[in-house]
């Protein structure tokens, strides 16, 4: 772990809303239309709520970040069954940084028998160096050159020392 404090970069509400509008336009422009927006907790819940309103679609939520039984894997199995039955699901997160969250969710869904044709992934911010690709994004970053720690509007409620501690826990994103 590095001791160098990260640059906390606070994204404004206006930027966030603009990104949601851009995601909504990207989803609406294509031939594929979701039946549900699925928010990935914790960071994807707020963008998913906004996007579900923008697209006039119902929203489901998966609390991947809690790692509590009954709130992540089990719910992913339920949505995998829905996709296998023909339901189209748009998963939403705040950032695709390393790709770890998306890879884990895709693996669990695949193991549970999902129909990948009925799944899409959207993020506000996509790291072009991520190991995993998403279908929709509002902004791109390149972690090879951009080391800022992005603080989304809902995270700005947290204390700066907590945000710094979180950033320092993943030094590979800051180095």
List keywords for this structure.
Rossmann fold, 5 helices, alpha/beta
Q: Which CATH first-tier class would you pick?
A: Alpha Beta
Helix content: 25-40%
**Helix- and strand-based class?**
alpha/beta
* Percent range for β-strand residues: 15-25%
Task: Present the secondary structure layout.
Layout: E1 8-10, H1 13-29, E2 36-40, H2 45-55, E3 59-62, H3 73-84, E4 89-96, H4 100-111, E5 119-127, E6 136-141, E7 149-151, H5 160-168
Parallel strand pairs: 1-7, 2-3, 2-4, 4-5, 5-6
Helix pairs in contact: 1-2, 3-4
What this model shows, in words?
With 175 residues, the protein is an alpha/beta fold. It has one domain: Rossmann fold, CATH 3.40.50. Helix content is 35%, strand content 22%. The protein is built from 5 helices and 7 strands; from the N terminus they run βαβαβαβαβββα. The strands form 2 sheets. A 5-stranded parallel sheet has the order 3-2-4-5-6, with helices on both faces. β2 (36-40), α2 and β3 form a beta-alpha-beta unit. α1 (13-29) crosses α2 and α3 (73-84) packs across α4. The radius of gyration is 16 Å and the shape is globular. The N and C termini lie close together (10 Å). The mean pLDDT is 89.
